[in-house]
Design brief:
The protein is α+β, with helices and mostly antiparallel strands and about 90 residues long. The protein has one domain (about 5-70). Helices cover about 30% and strands about 25% of the residues. It is built from 3 helices and 4 strands; from the N terminus they run αααββββ. The chain has a 4-stranded antiparallel beta sheet with strand order 1-2-3-4. The longest helix is centred in the first third of the chain and has 11 residues, at about 10-20. The chain is globular. The two termini are about 20 Å apart.
């Protein structure tokens, strides 16, 4: 999918990850402050086509002539006890 797709364009966290990664520095980045918007992020990620694996999901987005792989990692239980959290 392309970064201009509304499902990416309208998701501030997904768009932030894709734009930062397509710029080349850093080649890999982690965002954990998105957890305050967890429910919105979860809805946004569920709307995207993904490759599902046991421990995570992979999303591929084209930006600035590059394909950016976004990896959502799943945690079953975290420090707040909220099951199913994802982080980039």
């Amino acid at each position: 999918m392309d970064i201009s797709d509304p499902r990416v364009e309208e998701s501030p966290w997904v768009k932030k990850v894709v734009e930062a990664s397509s710029g080349g520095h850093p080649r890999e980045m982690t965002i954990s402050d998105c957890l305050s918007d967890y429910d919105d992020l979860r809805e946004d990620l569920n709307a995207l086509p993904a490759v599902h694996r046991a421990e995570d999901r992979l999303y591929y987005v084209r930006a600035e002539g590059q394909i950016v792989r976004v990896r959502a990692v799943f945690f079953t239980d975290d420090e707040t006890g909220r099951p199913g959290r994802k982080a980039f």
